[in-house]
């Protein structure tokens, strides 16, 4: 479990990478953080996890990318594309 400062730092780092060269995987990672941390705590933020997920799909996210991400972080795939 991460605290809010750690979450904010992760999101800041991902955003910095996205500012240089955005990718579907980065958008999915942001979506995952927003869904796992903010939605679970009933915190409203913008962009929403759904908006990041749509950006990931629009940028070519595949089911294989999602499976690889979850295998890497050790969590079950709990979302359908």
Structure description:
With 81 residues, the chain is mainly alpha-helical. The chain has helices at residues 4-20, 24-39, 49-58, 63-73. It starts with a helix and ends in an 8-residue tail after the last helix. The mean pLDDT is 92.
Structural descriptors:
globular; single chain; 4 helices; 81 residues; mainly alpha
Give a concise summary.
The protein is mainly alpha-helical and 81 residues long.
The profile of the biggest β sheet is: none
Order of helices and strands: HHHH
Structural class: mainly alpha
Q: Give the termini distance in whole angstroms.
A: 26 Å
Mean pLDDT equals 92
Radius of gyration: 12 Å
| Low-confidence parts | none
Shape label? globular
Number of helices: 4
Give the number of DSSP strands: 0
As a percent range, the share of helical residues equals 55-70%
- Portion in strands: under 5%
């Amino acid at each position: 479990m991460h605290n809010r400062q750690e979450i904010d730092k992760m999101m800041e780092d991902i955003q910095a990478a996205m500012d240089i060269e955005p990718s579907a995987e980065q958008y999915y990672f942001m979506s995952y953080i927003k869904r796992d941390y903010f939605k679970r705590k009933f915190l409203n933020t913008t962009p929403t996890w759904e908006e990041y997920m749509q950006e990931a799909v629009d940028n070519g996210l595949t089911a294989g990318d999602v499976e690889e991400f979850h295998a890497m972080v050790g969590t079950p795939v709990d979302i359908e594309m």
